[in-house]
Design a protein that fits this description.
2 copies of one chain form a homodimer. Chain A is of the alpha/beta class. In chain A, about 45% of the residues lie in helices and about 15% in strands. In chain A, helix 3 packs parallel to helix 5, helix 3 crosses helix 14 and helix 6 packs parallel to helix 7.
């Protein structure tokens, strides 16, 4: 199970956090953009080259501190297929540096099409007599609205190729309650119904450390629901976005963890990516500023959750 | 409103259908693959070149018969960034030939990230002093699980750049009911609650022909729900997948239409793409076979729904 690999990496680095790689061009230091635009012009290709160099600097600075990165597909698609190539190259570079890669695509579709997404983001495809790896992430975020047809096609790849998934349960955004908090007849909310499905789906992908290969996304901005879901879903690992710029703090995410300091990985994107802008660091020191912010976040969270021990 | 453009094109061609461009390599005739592999090898680049040539042949054959195409992102992502470049080139080619392009990505995310998806698939991005168009589709399918934060960022682009959206309401797959058919306290199903939100969101994007810029996806495989939603959502245009290979027929989709023969566009993918394989046509005639299947589908549906008149 790929979430075992993630959990082991978290324990090794004693750091239950993931750096979101959501590289808007506005976040990228000027010297990187100037170099890329000089070579490729003010084009999508130039933008993509800038993103990739920015990401590589971040990965170099973070790879011995943070166990995982979470590139957000939207910020690469925003720069066309050229941006999507930068996504591919970012995933490959992070893996070369030993990081676990969660591709944040929130993909969802009917069965046959979900099979294509699974091959695209976690698996491989046959081309003529050969086999090619399109993106090769380690885990993919998915949206549950279509039910098990949108999840099942991931199981084969998760088993065979040692990959994982994170299903949206309670998202971090202000309007997440419009549908997710609605209560079904019988008293369950939509988010808790999805959570229970995930705990059930996870039985087919049991892990070595008490958590299955079917993780869930639960926002740091809803600490009560985090605590409720931690109790209700004892074998389900949490990806917790919303830390930092979105407003969640260390005390908010603490309920996502078990007594071994395991059970969740907390994501921050903007606060790490833009640390150089916030702290007033020289732009050449953007990666160093990101690493300092990542260490601060790790220390804040571990102070609440304690030493990480493999269960 | 971009759905006005779609509706006018439907009336012009008297054809309320859309061809899904979901090009698995298995569907592509051998002569196209051989040519592409000879040039680029059995690589993702070779696969992408084959998909693009296949799509161009289909678009040439369909553009005077069918008003729109719906490329499914998964089948391009499956062939890496090279496949995503073929998606870009397919969208551009279809628009050159006068077709309306619905990018089927079922994208969803929190507000700031959804803004990036909106720019990626419908809008433009600033790079240095210039403005670039990443993919440039005419409408995008989106998933409602995150509530209005995942929809709002599309409104600006829909107004300014004359684009539209289709929100998943009741999907065509067998397990769509696992969540979508669950009943909330008060008696509404999840899908009907989402449908009502869409009718409400559409008030901000009113159209010339009685339908707003916020369309919804409702599967041909659930004709009762189609009829129920048509009545409940009088100003909401339907994208109806599931025709043909998934099992929906002309009588199943008829309830999606109003008395002017408007209100919906019906998608078929496999039955059109693979017509040459099913009919035993020569592989060189794959596009002709697709056009014949598209005409058959149009005639079957229009026989049920009648002449199309702009309301």
């Amino acid at each position: 199970m790929a979430l075992d690999r993630l959990i082991e990496k978290i324990a090794q680095l004693q750091n239950p956090t993931v750096a979101g790689l959501d590289p808007k061009l506005d976040y990228v230091p000027g010297f990187i953009k100037e170099k890329a635009f000089a070579k490729y012009g003010e084009t999508l290709e130039g933008a993509a080259a800038a993103l990739l160099e920015y990401n590589k600097g971040l990965i170099d600075a973070l790879c011995e501190i943070v166990p995982a990165v979470k590139p957000q597909c939207a910020y690469y698609e925003m720069y066309g297929w050229q941006g999507v190539k930068a996504l591919h190259d970012t995933i490959a570079y992070a893996q070369e540096k030993g990081m676990f890669v969660i591709t944040d695509g929130k993909r969802n579709d009917i069965g046959t099409t979900m099979q294509a997404y699974a091959a695209a983001h976690l698996g491989s495809v046959t081309v003529g007599g050969g086999n090619c790896i399109p993106f090769g992430g380690d885990a993919l975020t998915v949206n549950p609205y279509l039910g098990s047809d949108g999840i099942d096609p991931l199981f084969g790849i998760c088993k065979e190729a040692d990959k994982g998934m994170f299903v949206l349960v309670k998202t971090s955004n202000p309007s997440s309650g419009e549908l997710q908090d609605q209560v079904f007849e019988g008293g369950k909310t939509l988010y808790s119904a999805v959570g229970q499905l995930c705990e059930h789906w996870g039985e087919a992908l049991p892990g070595k450390h008490g958590y299955s290969g079917v993780g869930v996304v639960v926002g740091a901005t809803y600490p009560e629901q985090l605590a409720e879901l931690r109790t209700a879903l004892p074998h389900t690992f949490f990806l917790v976005p919303g830390y930092g710029a979105q407003g969640g703090g260390a005390k908010d995410v603490a309920p996502a963890f078990d007594s071994n300091g395991l059970g969740a990985i907390v994501n921050a994107s903007r606060s790490i990516l833009c640390a150089w802008q916030k702290t007033g660091a020289a732009e050449q020191d953007y990666a160093k500023a990101a690493a300092q912010e990542a260490i601060k976040m790790r220390d804040e969270i571990v102070a609440e959750t304690g030493k990480i021990t493999l269960g």
